[in-house]
Amino acid sequence: MKGRRRWRWRGEHRRFAAVLVLYTLLLLLLVPYALDYGARRGRADEEPLLRRCPSLEEALSEWGWEQRQPPLDEEEEEEDEEEAEGAGGGTAGAAGNGSAAAAGGKRHIYLHATWRTGSSFLGELFNQHPDVFYLYEPMWHLWQALYPGDALSLQGALRDMLRALFRCDFSVLRLYAAPPGPRDPLAAAPPAAAANLTTAGIFGWRTNKVICSPPLCPAAPRPRREIGLVDGAACEETCPPRALRELEAECRKYPVVVIKDVRLLELGALLPLLREPGLNLRVVQLFRDPRAVHNSRLKARQALLRESIQVLRSRHRAEPRGPPRHPQQQPPPQQLLLPPGLLGGGRAPQPQHRAEFFLGGALEVICQAWLRDLLLARRAPAWLRRRYTQLRYEDLVREPRAQLRRLLRFAGLPVPPALETFVLNMTRGAAYSSDRPFLISARDAREAIHAWRERLSRQQVRQVEAACGEAMSLLAYPLSGGDAR
Predict the structure, then answer these.
(1) Which of 49-53, 160-164, 316-320, 410-414 has the lowest mean pLDDT?
(2) Where does the record place Acidic residues bias (predicted)?
(3) How far apart are CA 223 and CA 361, in angstroms?
(4) Residue 436 CA, distance from chain mean position
(5) Which of 371, 398, 440, 473 has the greatest number of CB atoms lying within 10 Å of its CB?
């Protein structure tokens, strides 16, 4: 009897163990399936990614768009927007900016653009606003000091510099004030030029409204609140150099700080700054028809050659590299092959076309950066989209007053009537274009946006469209279909 009971107990125990094992295996199989089904169902309504951008997934994971929570919840963001609009309801100038900044919070705007897209004109609109402290391409200093560093490698340094400038800490400019060249990293004291840096050493200072107006320039011909272009020669003659600490003090008085630059390639590099609640950063990204950009770049080819090389080196840095070559196998510099794209591939550039080779290759890199920015913006969460807006240069010159109101509303700024008149006059001038490509002047911008049709050959148009076609499609720029003129 005892043997039968023991055998029966062992059989029941074995059956129970077998059932438990099968149940455990079933759970292990069903749980991952349920989780995967829920994840797929959650992504069902999302827009599929374009397949011709293989680095998009890597970029999304690198910048971590969806892995962190926004710095402010939706209700706090809406309250901040209402406070900003309430603070911007008047037309008070810099004299009352301290109270305005305390009431609505200091706001920072970065104008994200590239060379020859009309960014100088866009920045000038903010430079003219009486409630704005504006800086014109301050990161030029970093690029000059770290030449020939490629654009991608310098993005981290540019972002850190931008953070300091937005906080009105201009001591960062002293790090890059010395002329480019070999420097001893163990030197005990900074160069004299860096230690004595003044407002006259800042790039673009001759047309800066704050530097060329009282109180920094008591002898200025017009006050800060008066809207109108600054005469650079008159500013240089009448405005003495001032210490950077005085400029920092003026920066802290303004409720809005705007910085325009063209040397930051990736929108994703700004994500750490966009996530800082105390910084309150917003980004305006400016685009322009790549064919018009290429035409304008060719007109200023010598001035843009140095920086185009830095941009072009970013592509060679990003391309996969094979095993290292023997020094004897390296091609000589004069036999550098053209990259595929704007100027074709497999041919060594002729001396007369060398500048166009670098400009064309750089534009191809820029268009790829545009494509990544556009796709990243589409996948961005709602809190980030509220801090980011896009603007086409063609829309700005066709509807200047409407676009100006939209931009200032995005920045939380009032719209002075004199500024509306200014933007209209600047885009409805009699001149077709300027012989000085970096000079801001009134011109008939509606006609200038089509100048590429008369100056680019059919081959050049086809090459630009082949390199930038995907970005042009997302920006609603129609292809020419092979007709350049």
Answers:
(1) 49-53
(2) 72-85
(3) 44
(4) 25
(5) 371
Position 332 confidence tier, pLDDT thresholds 50, 70, 90? very low
Judge whether 34 lies within some domain.
no
> What distance in Å separates the CA atoms of residue 456 and residue 367, rounded to the nearest whole number?
18
In total, the chain counts a number of residues equal to: 485
pLDDT at 87: 39
pLDDT in tens, 223-266: 999 999 999 999 999 999 999 999 999 999 999 999 999 999 99
DSSP character at residue 331: P
Q: Is the pLDDT of residue 352 over 50?
A: no
Helix (H) or strand (E) holding 135: strand 132-136
Domain with 419, as residue range(s), is 57-179+196-288+380-432
C-alpha neighbours within 13 Å on the C-beta side of residue 11: 6
- Compute the Cα dihedral for 90, 93, 99, 102 and give only its sign: positive
Interatomic CA distance for residues 117 and 99, integer angstroms: 36
The rounded distance, in Å, linking the Cα atoms of 158 and 151 is 10
Query: Whose structure tokens read 């008591």?
Result: 218
What is the sign, positive or negative, of the torsion defined by CA atoms of 344, 348, 353, 356? positive
pLDDT for residue 301: 85
Give the model confidence (pLDDT) of 117-160 as tens digits.
999 999 999 999 999 999 999 999 999 898 888 888 899 999 99
User: And the tokens for 405?
Assistant: 């109101």
Q: Could you report the per-residue pLDDT of 94-114, keeping only the tens digit for each?
A: 434 433 343 358 999 999 999
137: left (phi over 0), alpha (psi -120 to 50) or beta: left
Average pLDDT, the chain: 78
Q: Is 282 helix (H, G, I), strand (E, B) or coil?
A: strand
Angle between helices 354-379 and 301-318 (to 10 degrees): 60
Domains held by the chain: number: 1
Is 291's pLDDT higher than 60? yes
Other beta carbons within 10 Å of 254: 24
Mean pLDDT across the stretch 393-421? 97
The reply to whether 215 falls in a domain is yes
Cα–Cα distance between 114 and 111 in angstroms, integer? 10
Secondary element (H or E) of residue 143: helix 140-145
Q: What is the DSSP string of 13-74?
A: HHHHHHHHHHHHHHHHHHHHHHHHHHHHHHTTTSPPPPTT-TTHHHHHHHHTTTTS--SS-H
Helix (H, G, I), strand (E, B) or coil at 162: helix
Is 298 part of any domain?
Answer: no
The answer as to whether 310 is a domain residue is: no
Rounded to whole angstroms, the Cα distance separating 102 from 121 reads 30
Chain-centre distance for alpha carbon 244: 26
Structure tokens at 440: 């801001």
Amino acid identity of residue 53, one-letter, is C
